[in-house]
């Protein structure tokens, strides 16, 4: 009786082993389709390349496209400067430093040091340069287009200009702006 049970047990294992073997050989057509590898030559196309050229006007998925005025569309008010300072302190100061000198906490930890806003090159750069850098990134700085609204980018540009002026203002600039009384009150 024992030998009969063993025989049935062996027979019951056999279909379990045969079914997977039979299924592995079925319908390999889906896996073995003809296809082109990237940059492989393809005689069926006029230029013999399998990679097709992009359609004119194609834009990457995460590209921000927006019209950019050459000058800030915001009036230069105290509220705009306060907003610019707030946004600058959040997004820019960790790398560029609170004074815009490139002495932020991120470069202190070994990351690349950004340039100071107080160099002649950046003081003479147009406002649109700063807006473009915030929007698209530059060098190791990534784009802030998805983090900073366009109005806030212009407010940051206005604040950067105020930082630059604060480091390079002369007594004549203070007199021309009529700020002598405010400076005396601050002391």
Which runs of at least 5 residues are low in confidence (pLDDT < 50)?
none
- CATH homologous superfamily caption of the domain at 78-186: Cytochrome c-like domain
Instruction: Quote the beta fraction.
Output: under 5%
What overall form do the CA principal axes indicate?
A: elongated
Percentage of residues in helical conformation = 40-55%
Oligomer: single chain
Overall strand count = 0
Rg measurement, Å: 33 Å
Protein name: Cytochrome c
Keywords: Heme, Iron, Metal-binding
Organism: Methylocaldum szegediense
Domain Cytochrome c: 79-164
Task: Characterise this structure.
- The protein is mostly helical and 187 residues long.
- The protein has a domain at 78-186: Cytochrome c-like domain (Cytochrome Bc1 Complex, Chain D, domain 2).
- It is 49% helix and 0% strand.
- It has nine helices and no strands.
- Helix 6 (127-136) crosses helix 7 (150-168).
- The longest helix is centred in the first third of the chain and has 23 residues, at 2-24.
- It is elongated, with a radius of gyration of 33 Å.
- The termini are far apart.
- The model has no long low-confidence stretch (mean pLDDT 82).
- Keywords: Heme, Iron, Metal-binding.
């Amino acid at each position: 009786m024992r030998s009969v049970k063993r025989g049935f047990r062996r027979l019951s294992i056999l279909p379990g082993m045969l079914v997977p073997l039979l299924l592995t050989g079925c319908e390999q057509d889906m896996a073995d389709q003809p296809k082109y590898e990237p940059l492989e030559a393809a005689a069926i196309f006029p230029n013999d390349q399998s990679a097709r050229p992009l359609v004119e006007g194609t834009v990457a998925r995460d590209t921000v496209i927006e019209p950019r005025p050459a000058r800030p569309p915001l009036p230069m008010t105290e509220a705009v400067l306060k907003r610019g300072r707030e946004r600058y302190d959040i997004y820019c100061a960790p790398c560029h430093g609170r004074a815009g000198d490139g002495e932020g906490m991120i470069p202190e930890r070994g990351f690349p040091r950004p340039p100071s806003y107080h160099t002649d090159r950046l003081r003479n750069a147009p406002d649109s340069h700063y807006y473009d850098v915030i929007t698209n990134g530059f060098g190791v700085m990534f784009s802030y287009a998805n983090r900073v609204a366009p109005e806030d980018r212009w407010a940051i540009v206005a604040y950067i200009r105020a930082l630059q002026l604060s480091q390079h203002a002369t007594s004549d600039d203070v007199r021309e702006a009529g700020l002598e009384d405010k400076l005396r009150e601050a002391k």
